Every structure is written in structure tokens, then in C-alpha cells.
Amino acid sequence: MGKRSVSSFLILVVLCSALVAIVGGAYEDEGRRGEAGGGEGGAGWSEGGGAGAGGGEEGGAGMRQGQDQFLLRDSEYVVKTDAGDVRVVRGVGGRFIKSPLHIGFITMEPRSLFLPQYLDSSLVLFVRRGQAKIGHIYKDKLVEKNLKTGDIYRIGAGFPFYLNNTAEGQRVHIICSIDTSDSVGLQPFQSFYIGGGRYPASVLSGFDPFTLSMALNVSIVEVGELLSRQIGGPIVFHNVSHSPWTKFLNLEDHQKLAHMKRIVHIGKEGEEEEKKQPMWSLRKFLMTSIFGSENKKREVKRGSSEGRDPYNIYDKKPDFKNDYGWSIALDKSDYSPLDESDLGIFLVNLSAGSMMAPHYNPTATEYGIVLRGTGTIQVGSPNGSLAMNAEVKEGDVFFIPRFFPFCQIASRTGPFEFFGFSSSARNNKPQFLVGEDSILKILRGPELAKAFGLSEERLDEIVDAQSGSTIFPSATVAPPGVILGLQVEVGKAKEVAKMIRTFGNDKIMDFD
Ligand SMILES: *[C@@H]1O[C@H](CO)[C@@H](O)[C@H](O)[C@H]1NC(C)=O
Ligand SMILES: *[C@@H]1O[C@H](CO)[C@@H](O)[C@H](O)[C@H]1NC(C)=O
Ligand SMILES: *[C@@H]1O[C@H](CO)[C@@H](O)[C@H](O)[C@H]1NC(C)=O
Ligand SMILES: *[C@@H]1O[C@H](CO)[C@@H](O)[C@H](O)[C@H]1NC(C)=O
Ligand SMILES: *[C@@H]1O[C@H](CO)[C@@H](O)[C@H](O)[C@H]1NC(C)=O
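Above: query sequence and 2-acetamido-2-deoxy-beta-D-glucopyranose SMILES. Below: predicted holo C-alpha cells.
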């Protein structure tokens, strides 16, 4: 009985989702067509000028009838700076193919750096010409390889990497596939910059300064220093000074405008797109995880699952434990039936005031249920704004999209305990942004320092201030005045960052 109504409910959900998918698909096509019309034509390397997305070719994108109907002529810049650019030719998607393969063209000028980042898509790089050093976090280590013409290299979704064109006088041209099957739905792919400042924003910028000050164990002023300097965009020259922002502020207005024109970010930052995204993720989750797993579970029940023993989560030793809390994660290696549902399970207990450090899940979305106490969940957007800052209490359920940085903080009144599912039975190794063994520590070096616009020594000081890992104690309370003042500062910084982006996009419109 109960089971039947569950399955008819699921069928209903799937029908609705399918409907939404079809309607959504149609909208996406519409949006894409409009946008491609404004984009640049031609898929060859664009040498020098031709920066602005002028009138482009008239309207038609996607499939054309006739002899050239399988030529993908339209491309769009997703990154464009003085030091390099990334252009994408969208693959053929649409109503029924939800995750097309896109083709990316990365060009980097001599002595330039593509800032450390991870993507929601996996890449297979082909070095067409030139050479570059790639730094890549793989199995919790920084792997550095020198790539030369003809080399092929794969970077999985969610794994941080940077590219350094070390050559004195040679551009590097890279062609890559962009596999969007893991995509969070932001098109054509979404970068999450590890190091950054005002432009591009670091994934850390999404957290409020007080949270970051607690996580990094540095003052709020130092947090400001870390997250305010970079304005050069995603690809920067090695030789540009450490504080281009101050220089920028000192320019005359017409010079600022000229500078802006050069560093415009021609991205698809449409708010509609981003608003659509949570629903899309939810739909994807429903389609792939819950429905898929229900199906499989039913098949299994008929067969061999009889007589399997349950697994008690409290019998497992915490995977991590310190004075401020502990956490347990279960995957299929602990309890094999989880594999059939493709789900993982976690349980976390934070003592009063403690924090689960900012981290992201490279392979899974996460649903959490508060078992005890109250706390705050903060989630950052890839563009460096705060996507969520919510107080939760016992019984509340929260959702964390894959790749989005987040942290949980227990309120000061008592312990905060939560349980949850992650949408992958494989060991979903969360990637910590801060603390021992964190991405900031693994990636540190000239590239990361450059990305934050700091000297290596200064970056080391900031990164080394936090010697703990995973769960951090509560911060000493700062006097309210300090926080207020700082929030005003940070607010101003965010305004300016927003201005740069809007300004950039506006400029592109009437720029030829
Ligand atoms: C940095 O290097 C680039 C290319 O090598 C050059 O065009 C530019 O003028 C240099 N900028 C400075 C500030 O030295
Ligand atoms: C969680 O930690 C608190 C102390 O911070 C402790 O009192 C409580 O028993 C713990 N909960 C579980 C389920 O172990
Ligand atoms: C890039 O590579 C060059 C040459 O190996 C090196 O000097 C430089 O420190 C690296 N990183 C940056 C950000 O310049
Ligand atoms: C935080 O920084 C203080 C010095 O400012 C240091 O004494 C303390 O050990 C640091 N805590 C951690 C967990 O690294
Ligand atoms: C950043 O993205 C969020 C949605 O994730 C959006 O609400 C916000 O306006 C964006 N902020 C900027 C400065 O573009």
C-alpha cells in the first residue's frame, strides 16, 4: 500500500519534472539563440584585436539548413583579459540532450597565469601550440606538469588547477572539451576561483568576513587584505604589480573606462539563469538520485537483499575528531547497499560555537537534517556573493549544491548535530578551503599569491595562521563596532565589484 503510493507519487514527480524539463529546454534554446546572435562568429583563433562582441552575425545560431548545417560557427567569450581569453563553441544540446559537450579555446599570452580554480565540468586539454605549466590537485597533492605542444591532459570536475604560460615569447593555445554532464546548470561552464579578489571573486568571498576571520584565524582587516587586491580578471600577466586596484583607483575616469573595456568579462551572468539553477539541480537530483535509486532498490528487494544486517552509524569511529567536534562519513565500503542507492551518509556533531570549515563537495550534492541544537549554514556563490546565510534548528532540512563552498557554525548556546545524505556512494571527499591539508595550503606558491595579489610571504602568513583542521573553535567575539565598520567596507567592495561586472557587460553592448 504505502509503497504503491510512494511509487505513484514518484511517477507524478517525474512526469512533472519531465514537463518542466521540456519547457525549460525550450526556454534555454531561446536564450541561447538570442545570446549567440550577439556573440562573435568564427571558430579560428582570434589574433589581437576584435575584442568586442560586435553586432556578430545576423541572428541565426545552432543548426542551419543546407550544406553547412553541422558547422558550429558561433562562439562566445567566457573570459577575456589583456593576458588571454577563453572562447567556447557550444555543443549541440537542446530539448533532449541535456548535457552537450562544448569546445573551449584557451589562449594565454607569454608570461601569464590562469588563476587557480575548479570547474563544474571536466576538461580534456589538448595543447595545440606553445607550452604551459599546469598545477593540479590530484589525490590531495599538488601535481605540476609541463605541457608541450601535442600533450593531452584531463582535469576532473571539482579539482583545482591553474595554468602558467612560462614561455618568454610564445602564446599558448589550448583546445579543450568541456563535458557538462556534471554541470550545475550554469552555462556553458562555471568557474570557482580559489584565489581572487574583486575580479574575479574568490570562492572565499561568499562567506561573511567574521566567518572567514574565524576560519582563517586572522583579523577581519587581514581578511579584507586577502580578498580585495585582485582585479585583473581570470588571466593575468606575471609582471603586473601586486596592487593593481590602487593603481586603478588613481586613474582618471577616461582611463578607468579604457581599462574596463580591456578587462570586460563577457560572461553569461544573467540572473534568470542563476535563479533557474536551484530548481534545475533539484530536478536533476530527483531524476537521477531518488527515482533512479528507488527503481534499483525495488529490483534488489525482490532478489538478494534479504538477511542483510543493518549498520549502526554510532558504532563507527569518527573519521575526524578534535576538541571542537567530530564527523562520520559512511560510503559503500562501510555499508555496501549504499552503492545500490548511490548515496553516502554523514553525521556531524559540533560543540557550541564551533565551525565546520568552509569546504565543497566535488562529487555530490548534499541534504542535511538538523538533529539537535541550532546553527548557521553559509553557502557562497561562484561569483563571490553570499548565496545563503540561514539559521537552522532541529528538524530543518538544508540542501547544498555540488561544487558550492559552504560551512556550518554551531550557535553558542549548545552543540549542533546534523545528519545527511550525499548523492554519491563513492567516497565523496569534501575539499576543505581553509586549514591543514586544505586547498589553500596545497596550492600555495607563486601562482596562488599572484591570484590574491599578495606576496608569497604575506600569503604564507595568512594561510599559516590557521593550524587546525576541519572543525575550528569559536572565534573570540569582536566588539560590535569593529564588525559593523568592516561590513560597511566589505559592502563597499562588493558594490564596486558588482559595478565592474555590470559596467563590463554594459560596455560590451555598445562597444564596437
Ligand atoms: C608585462 O608583459 C607584457 C608581455 O610580456 C608586456 O606587454 C607588458 O608591457 C608588461 N607590463 C609591465 C607592467 O611590465
Ligand atoms: C555531541 O557533542 C556534545 C558535546 O559537545 C555531547 O554532549 C553530545 O553527547 C554529542 N552527541 C553525540 C550524539 O555524541
Ligand atoms: C610561472 O612560471 C614561472 C617560470 O617557471 C615562474 O617564475 C613563476 O613564479 C610562475 N608563477 C607565476 C604566478 O608567475
Ligand atoms: C590562532 O592564532 C593565534 C595567534 O594569533 C595562535 O596563538 C593560535 O595557535 C592559532 N590557532 C590555531 C588553531 O591555529
Ligand atoms: C551572484 O550570484 C547570485 C546568484 O547565485 C546573484 O543573486 C547575485 O546577484 C550575483 N551577484 C553579482 C554581484 O553578480
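The first strand starts at residue 40 and ends at 41.
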